[in-house]
Specification:
The complex is a heterodimer of chains A (113) and B (170).
Chain A lengths: L2 H5 L4 E9 L4 E8 L2 H11 L3 E2 L6 E11 L1 E3 L5 E3 L4 E5 L3 E7 L6 H8 L1
Parallel strand pairs in A: 4-8
Antiparallel strand pairs in A: 1-2, 1-4, 5-6, 7-8
Chain B lengths: L8 E3 L1 E3 L27 E5 L5 H5 L4 E9 L4 E8 L2 H11 L3 E2 L6 E11 L19 E5 L3 E7 L6 H12 L1
Parallel strand pairs in B: 7-9
Antiparallel strand pairs in B: 2-3, 3-6, 4-5, 4-7, 8-9
Amino acid sequence: MRPVARQTRIQGVVTLRVSTDGKQVSAVDAENGPPLLVKAAKENVKTWQFEPHTGTKFEITFHNRLLPVECDSDCNCDSEEKESVLLQLPTHAEVSAKQYMLCDPAVEIQHKK
Amino acid sequence: MAAQRKLGLTSALLLLSACSTAQNKPANGPLGAHRTASDLPKVIRASVPFYPELARQTRIQGTVTLRVSTDGKLVSDVGAGSGHPILVRAAAENVKTWEFKPHAPTSFELTFRYRLFIPECDSECNCDRGERGEKESVLLHLPTEVDLSAPTLLTCDPAVEIRRKRVQEY
């Protein structure tokens, strides 16, 4: 997931319409999704290469999800679930990343007290 | 069978986040603490690993463990711990494409799990590659775990399938 999307807590589903020339991606059109995530998904799809085939079109969905992060009083923050990327190519991708946390130990200690 | 792979990706680059560490961590962490994910180098770029076609055809599956050393940015050495040679080679080749966020050179253990599943075939031997049953997939928990699953190669005989269908109909 893009650092900016993570920091601004943007998540969601991106749908792209991909055209191939029989070997590489020739065009990518965004169907919908948050612009920042659409950009990231497009950039990734453009790197794909295929086994030679007749030029075709298909739809792909990218599911971008932020994982909730918990912090202790020393601001050791972590998510219960591990960050992951799941690929079911060429139509489905799931990216999950830890949410960006701003943690102030002073606040946490006070909170604890 | 060949037609089913018409959209098979031969290689693809996966761009991962080149992000700063998520949390404001205090410098005075407990000494000798259990190694957490944040101590491991962060992968920012990697090629997608695929199930080796030869291994799929010969029905080879299993787990590969590798010892990966980094120079602070790239993989400097890959030592094979265990696994079938074909799978070890595929995993090692993939790991060499990884790039990390700059870090102090380190080494860590990595596991690749290769698993085959049986695809569903209809009476005309149109075998599924994801439309109905389980889908071919790659799950990455970088930099320590990679799980790959692919449909096993079936030798499907339409005569046998039609007969089976008839038997079921009676």
